[in-house]
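Trying the structure run again after the queue cleared.
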Amino acid sequence: MSAPDDAMSRVRRKRMEIFAFLFLTAVVMPVLAVGTVGSYGLGVWIYQMFAGPPGPPPSPH
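Done. Tokens:
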């Protein structure tokens, strides 16, 4: 009697693993990528507000 329950739990587990994989690849990873790039850009922007834009120093003429 436990064989059908075991088969159903395997099917359910496989379905949940597929759902978890799709959730990670379609939702979590893009959010992490956008958050990482966005926070780096924000950090550079804030740094440049205090240190000035990159480039050679102005000429002393």
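The chain has one domain: 1-47. Worth checking whether this holds up in the mutant runs.
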